[in-house]
Amino acid sequence: MSTTQNNWEPNWRTRCYPWGPVRYSNKSMPMPDLENCWVVVTRPSHQAAKLSNSIASQGGHPIPFPVLEITELPQPAGAENLIKGLNRYQLAIFISANAVNQGLALVNSHGHWPSQLPVAAIGRATTSALRGAGFDAVLAPRERFDSEGLLDLAALHDVSGQNIVIFRGQGGRTKLGDSLRQRGAKVDYLECYRRTRPQIDPSILHDHWRDRQLDIITITSAEGLQNLYDIVGPDGRDHLLSTPLVVCHPRLVPAAHKLGWQAAILVAKKNDDDGLVEAMIRAWRR
User: Fold this and answer.
1) What is the pLDDT of residues 129-148, one digit of tens each?
2) Which residues, 6 or more positions from 13, have their beta carbon under 8 angstroms from its beta carbon?
3) What is the spatial distance between Cα 97 and Cα 124, in angstroms, rounded to a whole number?
4) What's the pLDDT tens digit per position in 203-243?
5) How many CB atoms are located within 10 Å of the residue 98 CB?
6) What is the maximal distance between C-alpha atoms in the chain?
7) Where do the CATH 3.40.50.10090 domains begin and end in the chain?
8) Taken in order 63, 122, 101, 69, is the CA torsion positive or negative?
């Protein structure tokens, strides 16, 4: 009896990561776009799995290194009164998926969501979080996933006299709120979580640089970029600033240059995980 493998049977390779195995066939398949590329994933731990899996599925090696930690605010200032008065608002805007998770938990602890209050989101992850929480109709940009993209929507052009509440993290950007106020809206903030710098050992990155197994760093916020710079410390600065950087938004480029970044900086064409992976592939092919 012949022991030749049937042609239809795929040859599988399996890579195991903390979040589970990633398997893909290499039969009649081109080399993955990130083959042998080591990528630092700096998202908070609870938000890193999707991007890490996408990197692994392209043949890359994700290096989890969270530079932000999301924690709830014990008693957000004015939260209880604002929540009890939610029915006076014409729109609620959520800045991030964290704002959805923490904000709705806060609302539920003090009352309930008014059925007539519509919601808006900036990005895909935030939109998905709102829909997962039961909101079928979510106002959100289709292309540019940032404050400017939301402000470009026709529904926000004429907001004169409207009351709008923005759910966000402590000390977030003011661009959205300032612009809505300039258009005549009354804007309140509900800060429902805070971003802190985690305690993480920088030797993880130092070891990868020493072994020449660190090719690209991903960054999704200016605060995260500064935290990474501080965490690495003086001993790792030269390596850090000479490592190609992939960022989610053009505004992070001058922030990196201000820190002294010398390597290439590539901006994702879309502010989401797919956009980051596409930018990584461009960086890896350079």
Assistant:
1) 999 999 999 999 987 778 88
2) 23, 24, 25, 26
3) 9
4) 999 999 999 999 999 999 999 999 999 999 999 999 999 99
5) 26
6) 82
7) 18-68+198-285, 71-194
8) positive
Q: At which residue do the structure tokens 């009890």 appear?
A: 84
Cα distance between residue 17 and residue 188, in whole Å: 42
Query: Which residues lie across from 234 on neighbouring strands?
Result: none
Residue 220 corresponds to which tokens in the numbers above? 């999704």
Q: Residue 234's CB: how many other CB atoms inside 10 A? A: 6
| In CATH, 71-194 is 3.40.50.1240 | no
What CATH code would you report for 18-68+198-285?
3.40.50.10090
Do 95 and 177 meet the contact criterion of CB atoms below 8 Å apart? no
For the four alpha carbons of 164, 166, 171 and 177, in that order, the dihedral sign comes to negative
